[in-house]
Amino acid sequence: MRELGIGDLARKVKLRPSALRYYESLGLLPTARRVTGRRVYPASTLRRVALIKMAQRAGFTLAEIRQLLDTDADRGATKQWRTLAERKIPELDQFIQETQALRNAVADCLACGCMNFDSCQLLSYGTPEDDA
Amino acid sequence: MRELGIGDLARKVKLRPSALRYYESLGLLPTARRVTGRRVYPASTLRRVALIKMAQRAGFTLAEIRQLLDTDADRGATKQWRTLAERKIPELDQFIQETQALRNAVADCLACGCMNFDSCQLLSYGTPEDDA
DNA sequence: CTTGTGGTTCAAGCGCGCTTGAAGTCAAGG
DNA sequence: CCTTGACTTCAAGCGCGCTTGAACCACAAG
């Protein structure tokens, strides 16, 4: 199976066809080949949608993802992508750290037997004593 | 400074006063004490807002965070919070893994000198060969 | 007293990421 | 032939997380 209809693709990537059309309209997916008016996708689209979903989970907006994926492959795009990527890596790092902290906090808090997250004695990070 | 007005609090936590009022309206923050009609917050609110923001970044909805923080501290709430927390920990773990993967992918891709994320030779993960 | 600053409530609006509805096209099956 | 069902386009709608605007209130400085 080297090609997919929009329904098949949607089922595989667990999105609705409408979402895929929406992505196309935003330039997140290249304009699909049409066969008697219907979209037909190459199998490689699976990978692309997987990337989109992953980036999305990591907090990129669809507009940013569009830049990352560089659908139109225009001349300056490579540099654009590099700039965005360089900007995003430290953001991702910080994000990962924070999420780790939250995960551990939740786990510790469960272990300590406290009533709820807010009242847990173990938690102290993240309280801004600092700035004005 | 043990108590804060809404403007002070907003400045410290880097949110707008409107967001704090909104949180209160959702039950995310306890109904603030009023002094001649105006909200006055104890310093502990800083910590609470920090928790809210952290949980939010980790992909919890405000409704879920409300449950985690258990504002109303009702009888069954402790169990509710534990259930939610237990459900969320593996989600957070998976999320962290995925974000790590993305971070590394972006970094590798930058290093490999490819044109863009989609065309990078190094990337192969995340392609669903599996299910129907 | 007046003006300014920063609060209050409430309802409406906005941006994002889709979804839904209306109206139409096409291909296969009974 | 006629239905069924999956698709098409386009515009409008929705839920979330706030923001904004209108109308009002309270205290402080000039």
From TrEMBL, chains A, B:
SMART domains: HTH_MERR. GO terms for molecular function: DNA binding; DNA-binding transcription factor activity. Transmembrane segments: none annotated. Keywords: DNA-binding. Residues 3-71 form the HTH merR-type domain. This is MerR family transcriptional regulator. It comes from Streptomyces colonosanans.
